[in-house]
Amino acid sequence: MGAPTMMSGSNPILAVSINSTLAYLLAPPDSDLQGYLQVAGQGVSLNAPAMARTGTATEIAATGTDDSLSFYWNIDGTTIWGAQQIAGPWRAYGAPAITADASATEVAYIGADASLWFDWIINGTATWHAEQVAGPGTMQGAPAMVAGNYTEAIAVTGADGSLHYYWSRDGTSTWYGAQIAPPGTASSSPAMTRFNGGTEIAAAGL
Fold first, then answer.
1. Which of 190, 186, 175 is nearest to 132 (CA)?
2. What whole-number distance in Å separates Cα of residue 49 and Cα of residue 95?
3. For residue 141, which of 49, 64, 164, 168 sits 20 to 30 Å off, Cα-Cα?
4. Is residue 114 within 8 Å of 136, Cβ to Cβ?
5. What's the CA gap between 118 and 9, in Å, rounded?
6. Contact 189, 144 (CB under 8 A)
7. DSSP symbol at 49
8. How many angstroms separate the CA atoms of 183 and 43, rounded?
9. Greatest alpha-carbon span in the chain
10. Burial of 206 (0-12, 13-18, 19+ CB in 10 A)
C-alpha cells in the first residue's frame, strides 16, 4: 500500500494506492479499508496522490509506475470517475500537489529531470497547459501548493537542501521565485497553508 492522502470534514475522504491501483474511500468504515471504490486500475505508483474538492466534484492527481501523471474526477452523486493524462511516461517524479476551484484545476509536480512544473486546465475542457516553474536539476521531493487571493503559490525543497517559494498571478504565465532558506537547511518536502492573506511554510531541518 502506498502513502495515503486525506481530506477531513463531516465525511472524511481518503485516497490511496493499493496493489498499484488507485482507491477512494468516503468516510472509511474501518482500518481494513473495506468498501473502497477503485478509481484507476493497475499502473498507479506508491507515491501519495493529491486530492482537492470543488463545489460539486472530487479531483485526484496521481503518478504512475512509469512516472506519468494522471488526473481523475468524480461529479458528486455519481459513481463514474473520469480520467485524463496530464504528463506522459518518464515526465513526473514523486507525489504531486493539486488545487481546484469552480473554474479551473492546477497541479504541481517535480519533473524526471528535477525541474518544477505547473499544469492547469479549465474545468470541463480536455486541454492541459504546462508551465515550467524552475529548471532541471534544481528540485527534489514533493511540492506543496496553495491558491487564493488571485494567485497560485508553490513551496519546494531544492536539490541542495534549500527551501524555495514561487508564486504566479491567475491568468498569467510569469512565475516569481524567492529562496526562503539557504542550502543545507531542509531535509524534507515542505507543507504549506494560507490563511487571512498570509502564507505559512514548514519543512524538517537537517
1. 175
2. 6
3. 168
4. yes
5. 28
6. yes
7. P
8. 35
9. 48
10. exposed
Q: What is the pLDDT along the chain (206 residues), one digit of tens a residue?
A: 556 576 655 455 667 666 667 867 666 555 555 556 667 766 777 688 898 988 888 899 988 888 999 999 988 888 888 899 999 999 999 899 999 988 899 999 999 999 999 999 999 899 999 999 999 999 999 999 999 888 999 999 999 999 999 999 998 999 999 999 999 999 999 999 998 878 999 999 86
d(CA 165, CA 153): 7
Which amino acid appears at position 58 of this protein? T
CA 60 – CA 150 distance, rounded (Å): 22
Give residue 200's identity as a one-letter amino acid code: E
Determine the topology of domain 5-202 in CATH: Neuraminidase (2.120.10)
Q: What is the spatial distance between Cα 152 and Cα 168, in angstroms, rounded to a whole number?
A: 5
Cell numbers 508553490 correspond to what residue? 154
Domain-wise residue ranges, the chain: 5-202
